[in-house]
Amino acid sequence: MAGILYLVATPIGNLEDMTFRAVRVLKEVDLIAAEDTRNSIKLLNHFEIQTPMTSYHEFNKYEKGRKLVEKLLDGMDIAVITDAGTPGISDPGEELVRMCYEAGVRVSSVPGPAACVTALTMSGLGTRRFAFEAFLPADKKEREAVLTELETETRTIVMYEAPHRLVKTLKLLSERLGVRRITVCRELTKKHETAFLTTIPEAVAYYEANDPKGECVLVIEGRSREEMRQEEQARWEEMSIEEHMEHYLAQGMNRKDAMKQTAKDRGMQKREVYNYLEKIKE
To answer: Which domain holds residue 245?
Structure first.
């Protein structure tokens, strides 16, 4: 009978956030796959966990992942832990979970701390709808594609950033997203935890003058739907009604539907568009 893969969340800064269940599972499994064994041994020693440990990280996730799946199929129970937080969120645990599903291995999650949710809930910004972006891509083309998507993202955005890149990233966000509210969360759950609610341009100025320390989570206000609607309407109003109609007719719309859509775009009644077009015929 195949074993179970456990995704075990570990503290993101405060050891008191370790759950009883997480400790029990880590003691009971046959093997722990850790992102950084040198870092994780401190956690295991603190909770007197003596389970054997192996490394599983970004640079061996495919080769090591296959070996771990083989062990699971042989009946071993394995727990995955990341350096901090919940495995599978912005780390190689995601790939191992996919491999397990393909192999028919059961996956179970032992919930606990996650920096993205911790920051979101204390940000003072909207929490009902949010988009998690992790770190911006290093590849320039991919980063540009993500930023283009974020320009019109209406949900609250949650991102990670390292302190030495924070100012550069904030400047980039300021250029692309403009004046939006942002909460910069640092040192989450630790003694010097801070949550700085401000605007993106003001955050740039502040961190240019004050060197950031500790890993950062950025929680950014989504784009206002009303603002987007007004901008779109302003673009339409730069056109004449005839040009607006032609825009839709050129796409293959019939005249009736083009008139209806033109009226909707401009906040007018369909009858008003019709009367205008009839008048200019005279």
So the answer is: 226-281
